[in-house]
Every structure is written in structure tokens, then in C-alpha cells.
Amino acid sequence: NMISTNEYFDGNVKSLGYKTSTGNSTVGVMEAGDYEFGTSTHETMIVIEGEMTVKLPGDSIWAAYKAGESFEIDANEKFQVKVSAQTAYLCQYK
Question: Which helix (H) or strand (E) element contains residue 22?
Fold first, then answer.
């Protein structure tokens, strides 16, 4: 199994994908900016370093997640993310 390389938003978000015993994961970095992501599977997003301000599907408010904190998104949803400085994350797909 090769490590896959992904780039989104003109290279402002980059990640490396790999397989685990429970599914697929990516570890990546986001540049400062505003992003909208769509999910095809259930995702658990864990902030490794930095901070993400996130608007989850169906929520009207933004919530901040710091290093060590996580949030989950169901399949076939969209969620919005703002980061003010380079931020690293781990995303687990189920």
C-alpha cells in the first residue's frame, strides 16, 4: 500500500493518506484560510497542532477546536473550517 498525496485549494491544504487496521486516515496541514469540505464517509477530525474554527452541518454557530480536540462529521455532509495559522490534523475515515 502506497502513501497517497493529496492537495486541495491550490495547495493550501495538503495531506498524506494511509491505511490503518480500522480504515483509512490522512494526516495533513492547512494554511491560514477559509475552507469548505464535503464528506463521502464518516470522518473524525483530530487537531494535532494549531486551532480550527468549525461550523458543523446543521449548526448555526462556529466552534473552536484546539490541539488534542476532535469532532465528527457524518457521510455526505459539508462542513466549514477557518484557520488563522498553519494547522495540522489527523482525519480518520470509517
Answer: none
Whole-structure pTM value: 0.93
User: Are 17 and 3 within 8 A, CB to CB?
Assistant: yes
How far CA 68 is from CA of 15, 21, 24, 30, 62, in Å, comes to 18, 21, 20, 16, 18
| pLDDT digit string, tens, across residues 23-49 | 999 999 999 999 999 999 999 999 999
Place of cell 492547512: 30
Rounded to whole angstroms, the Cα distance separating 30 from 14 reads: 7
Distance of alpha carbon 43 from alpha carbon 32, whole angstroms: 22
Ramachandran area for residue 21 (φ above 0: left; ψ -120 to 50: alpha; else beta): alpha
**What are the phi and psi torsion angles at 48 (to 5°)?**
-90, -50
